[in-house]
Amino acid sequence: MRTTANPPALPEEASGRKNASWFEQLLSEVNSDPEMDLIGGNLTATVSFTFGSDRHDLVFQRGKVVDLRHGKKIDWRCDFGFRASDETWDKFFADPPPPLYNSVFAMIMRVPDFQLEGDSMVLAQNARAVTRLLDIMQEQGRL
Amino acid sequence: MNALFEPIRGGYVHVDVDGTKYRIYYEEAGQGVPLLCLHTAGADSRQWRHMLNDAQVTRQFRVIAFDMPYHGRSNPPSDWWLKRYELSVRLYVGIIRAVWKAFELDRPVVLGCSIGGFVVLQLAVDFTDELRGIIGLQSVANGIGRYNSFLHHPAVHGGEFAASFTYGLNSPFSPEESKRENWWYYAQGGPGVYAGDTAFGREFDVRHRLKDIDTSRCKVSILSGEYDYSALTDDSAAVAAAIPGARFMRVPRMGHFPIIEDYPGLKRYLDVELQYMIDTSEAVPEEHA
Fold this sequence. Notes:
- The complex is a heterodimer of chains A (143) and B (289).
- By secondary structure, chain A is an alpha/beta fold.
- Chain A has six helices and six strands.
- In chain A, β2 (46-51) and β3 form a beta hairpin.
- Chain B has an eight-stranded mixed beta sheet, with helices on both faces.
- Chain B is an alpha/beta fold.
- Chain B is built from ten helices and eight strands.
- Chain B has helices at 49-52, 55-58, 89-102, 115-126, 158-167, 176-187, 193-203, 233-242, 258-261, 263-278, and strands at residues 9-17, 20-29, 33-38, 61-66, 109-113, 133-137, 219-225, 247-251.
- The radius of gyration of chain B is 18 Å and the shape is globular.
- At the A-B interface, α4, α5 and α6 of A face α5 of B.
């Protein structure tokens, strides 16, 4: 595993915006998760999460996060990703999340601010593992 | 000997709908007022197992749940490999009616969830005087766009995708074990079956008929889990509001699959409506009126 960063540090936000260190912890949680270990073997893709203007990429190989990227570069390619405002992400990470914000599939259908980016078929092919990833994120990110 | 046998009886009934023969699997328990239960799109009657095992219900109701053709243990019709499966309003109502007639159910209560909660509105319109009442869970009066091509796509595992796609319809408060059980049922759907069920939503629209449902002849109760992002609670409330005399209850902390994702959480609300269905005094508790 290696970690790259650009810019090197992201400011902590009162809104609960997730920063580089939060994603480092997420990497550890995902890579030690027994369910992901069981079901993630076919997940080889790069998934982006964008909070307002802050983007974070999780590079998966066979269900393990092998790289984290923070920021953007022209050659940092993603297979698919999720983009929303801090306000929307805060609802997703709320404990409990309010109706319509409890899952990404709900937000794709009902929250205009929430955007699915990239090749949605890669998401569909890995829906089970991605669902688990998002569950881990919610568990770790409770506000 | 610690084996536990459930009081559920299973069997098969052969019915004819529009000249096509169907072999239908059903499960039943209890005795009393017939209560015909309709599962959600892409699933099967296993979703009703908690109600079929609920002695408080089966003391007063003969609970019957069946698998729609192509679902669970009900076969597709002959030559199915030559036909695209798309559930029409006519076929859905026809199958329900055929099962109802095969069992010779006298003025049943029909209880449906999701797509089953949609079609009960059509039944109330079409068979008002032959029903004791309907209970719709997550009912809306016109279609919801749940179709997407990944539900039946050569590059996507349809079962895992449908199960994960619908998993988010559960409430975050519902027990993990129950949500995973429903995931398992969805993962076992036949290729293209959930996608075929969504065709019903493209055709179905009874909004203009709701006002004609006479609740003095056919009682109507609508319950809606607040975490359902597909059949929105406000839309279910609007359905009840459009039917004079219909009852409506928002079920807090509940999602799209109350019968399976959290039956105990549903029961405290559903029991009231089941009693309303068999109550001849017409007394309505204030909070449900």
